[in-house]
Design brief:
This protein is α/β, with parallel strands linked by helices. It has 33 helices and 25 strands.
Amino acid sequence: MTLGSELASQANSAEEQKKRAHRAYSIGKVAVLGAGTMGARIAAHIANAGLPVLLLDLAQSGTARNSLATAALAHLRTGKPAAFASTDAAALVSLGNFEDDLERLRTCDWVIEAVAENLEIKRALLAKVASYLHRDAILTTNTSGLPVAKIAEQLPPDLRRRWFGTHFFNPPRYMRLLEIIPTPEADREAIETISNFGDRQLGKEVVPAHDVQNFIANRVGTFSMMNTLKIMEEQGLTIEEVDLLTGKAIGWPKSGTFRLADMVGIDVLANVARNFKASATDERSDVELSGVIERLINRKWLGDKTKQGFYKKDRGPDGKELRLVLNPATMEYKPATAVTLPALEKGGPLPARLETLLAGDPNSDKAARFYWKVLPELWFYAANRIGEVTETLVDIDRAMTSGFNWELGPFAMWDAAGVANVVETMRSMNMPIPASVETLLKAGGASWYRAGGEEYFDVTSGAYRPLKRNPEHASIATYKKTKGVFDSNASVSLVDLGDGIGCFELHSKMNTLGDNSVSFLRESLQPGSAACKNFDGFVISTDAQNFSVGANIQQLLERVRSGEYEDLAANVAQFQQMTQAIKFCPRPVVAAPAGMALGGGCEICLHAAGRQSYLELYTGLVETGVGLIPGGGGCKEMVLRALANASRVKADPRGESVEILETIRTIFEMIAMAAVSTSAADARDMHLLTSSDAITMNRSRLITDAKLRSMQFVRESYTAPVLRKNIPAPGANVFATLKLAIYLMREGGFASEHDAKVAMHVAKILTGGDINPGTLLSEDHFLELERDAFLSLAAEPKTLERIEYTLRTGKPLRN
């Protein structure tokens, strides 16, 4: 190169960098190329985020040119698990094909290629669509195995700068991992735009991965699954035993290894495993497919999609559904049996459990023998991936916790078991030690993480580095460390979130609401309390998976059995006082539920000044399922919402309107049927959330979003509502309609006698009973109706049968 050409090249490079520095990407509309299972579900989840999505696939002959995309959308509407969070989201997906609709790509800001895992098919499609993309459109691939840079090497340079990998995990709505795979040419600003969008609007744990076969999570997870199958055969274990051993006991999903394989698809698993050979860098990178996998594929027993794999369902002679499990030796199915292993019955937090499980004698303890083979091989395999699949061990851990739903990533698990102890034992077994482990030990490190998880060992530098955390992803536990706990008891802690906001953290078992929870919240939220003097606003939430499964029915059952009815009456009154304290607290209270918020948990949310909910919210007033009624003000609050939603209430002071009948009937059916929302968006449709309540897409952002919502109330000079004494009762006419509906349900065999009795109580509370329509009632009157109904039903033998059955099985009883 001459000096002149070199200077010209530098000038062009500087000009290009200047252009890139000023390029601003924004995502307003998305297109997905390929309406297969993955592409269609990616489109659905982008619609869940509120964006319009164009879903394209191959054109078909005849008039139904879009039939592939049309069929995909139809399946999305009905498939399980549900792809859409609401019916409104489905309306955001528009359909087309690769022949007639490429012009529509010009309005799309992000185009995701998700066609078949075939290099030539992908290249041909990209060449076809390239000229239809606007100059700032970002183009990415959802490939799970092909080299990202290689797919697009024929594209023009400017488009290659807007090209990289975005690997979603299936199903995208529920699986939080999004692996971002940059290429050397990729524009950092484009990558940052999609990373931020994935984090904030799609709710993803965004993890950077290198452009190597299978990236991070599939690489480590598939090794673990295939190696587990190999060890199962070596040790003569059954599929049921291995699924138990690789489930909740070690912080992995209860599906275990083989149930997960069925859900993923055995053919998909095999394809990922075959890709290992293309990227082998050590003796453990290549995992040969087990013979049983090959035999399953040859028989087309591919798991759930073909209705049989390692497991399948059948009907027994009595017509009841049976779960069958494969015998790998004979390739025949037999009834699955419940397996128990004494070593797995010990509870406690996962780190202590791991230590206990590995403390067993491998010569006599089946579990210890299995774990001493599976876990060290997993840990050593993961250690050899540092620097290969991603830069740090932290990102490997993040990928496994969000992509495979492990409670701890492999390095955090290894720390829990003790790095030095494991290495010493493995040396005695003549197992090779990865170079990264030797680097850790030579540096004097005793663990991969230290300082309470705030530092990690960087293998490249041979030193510990601070763990970079997004401050907006702060959990309650984070604030406990940095700000401290203001007050607490065994079930609730009041944690300082800073900026004048306190958080009531629920932390009893399953966050049930018993005496401790109720008294703490009731007393803390009273005017003049220490909490109200020290904080300007509050959040009620939890770091646990579920917000609250409701009142502690075990306590209720024990009091009824002991004849402590006065105590029970006092408990119901105190629960109502607690929810009223939430509603009328002089400081704004924001409920931030995620997961299950059932019964009393739902009632807490209903009484809050506002709700900041995670998208995956399963909430409802479910007390009728155990023979009770919502007794904590839930019925009262739903009456208020129903009346507010009836447009003619003010025009007709007597309360006689079609709108009132329909809104009351809707909430009656919801409560009587113990309906539960399928998402936060669905909860909004059920009026359990209001139109002003916000939804957080990323669970890691929930506490930050709720804190900001509480701060917003404070800035707007929040004033607590006043106890209402002028509620126009729907009255006798609506009550009669509901009674007729109950009668017809009973006569038609759709409700038992006890169902009807419970439903009659609900109908009376919601309408005020046999009184003149429009009669003005107070909130206290509705609460009194709730208390009377709750206490009456609590003494019913059939209610006690339901409670006992639910406590024993976790399921409702129809009696």
